[in-house]
Protein 1
Amino acid sequence: MLSTFDYEKLEGLLKDYYQMTGIRITIFDDSFHELISYPEKLPDVCRFIRQNEEAEKACHQCDRDACRTASVKHAPYVYRCHAGLTEAVAPVFLGSIPVAYLLFGHLFSYPDKKEGQAQVIKACSRYGLDNDKLEKYVEGLSIVEKTYILSASHILQAVASYLCMDRMITLRQQETMAQIDEYITGHFAEDLDVTFLCERFGVGKTSLYAFAKQNYGCGIAEYIRKLRIEHAKRLLREDTEMPIALIAEKCGFHDYNYFITVFSRLAGCSPRKYRYSEK
């Protein structure tokens, strides 16, 4: 998690939004982990659907995919979820860094109740749910007009912007990036990749990429390659007897031919030529 959150203020804001619109909001962090919801309890229809393990996994995947899409769009994204209900997500940016996502959902938006029931039952057919029970849960939902959802999504984006203005969300950029940079510098010869770093420091791939571009001018993988090649240059000059294959291994390259290719691209010549070139 790259950000810190004022949960007390957030809960108050979500409560106000719910009282105005009747729509439940969930806030996710930059790694798509749920932080807070209001109301906390899911709607009955969603709790019924999520009793199925596969359906619950699909819910989480649907949320993650929607957050990613909104991040790319830099705007609210309205969509039908895997269960046939309408949802919207708005990204929260601090500068160019996505730090959180606001999602509202579980809305029943169809021309009429019968058509909507049929669509939801069809969407959930893969989960082996009791259709009679599902139909009763859907029967309890009120139809929400598309225009209302669009207006609510626009207000949601305004709320997302306000979160940063009122410092309900603040970025721990300096601290987190310093930790990541220190770790990469000390472990670049090991099997490092973006997935490992995201898991270790609890950050999202999009956020890590944005940090890398801002601080290194390139992606994480390219930056690690540059560190390895700089280390290889030092070893080539400091120990002219060390086999180049061993140098490649010490710098984190398990494929000798790949090492030669990368070194030649970044250094402008082969490792052997570099070793005996003028210092």
Note: The chain is about 55% helix and 15% strand.
Protein 2
Amino acid sequence: MKAMVFAAGLGTRLRPLTNDRPKALVEVGGVTMLERVIVRLIEAGFDDITVNVHHFAQKIIDFLATKDNFGVTIHVSDESDLLLDTGGGILHARQWLDGDEPFLVHNADILTDLDLRRFYTDHLKSGAMASLLVKERVTQRYFLLDDNNRLCGWVNKSTGDTRPDGLQYVAGRWRERAFGGVHVISPEIFAELERWSQGNPVFSITPFYTGECQQHLIRGYEPTEPYHWLDVGKPETLAQAEALFTKSTTD
């Protein structure tokens, strides 16, 4: 099974920790975020993994080499010359992700014990172009889902912006959920991303999802079983993760 790890971010919120290393190589409980994510993917059965790189790219390449690629196939999608954002990053890595099976995408700064194999299997049964991990939590930006978990739009409550264009936000009309930084995507998306990007190599995947959700089946995935989830891309949540993993190793 194929997966992609977004490890190209600048990590500006974690400075000064990221002044001399990429965010993905910041340690949590003595283990880098990247290693934690890759090991979880391998445990779930993913054995063909693409990692994109930009900020301190060579350090990630060297790190993977010292780990002997964790015993699986790992491709490096090099964005050293230009950071491509999430949509552009996926499209740039098409040569390793395209094919006849879906692939899972996982942010390097998301640490979770979510059952990734179950998520992948659920997507296979859904017939969707993409399945997005969502959670009920407080934020400013929400995916708007119908009762069947189909994505219908997006709202930024701090600015009032909505997608797709022309969507009129009505409180209570949709289930409002936050995106969890993990998604499973069917390869049919590549042709649509090519069309959407119009030759621009730098673009985010989220506006694609929310702009195209009326034309394509894009759905939220909300597990029924409890799971832990942490976005460790900022100092306060990094401290929480550090405390959590330190505790788990001493218990």
Note: Confidence is low (pLDDT under 50) at residues 247-251.
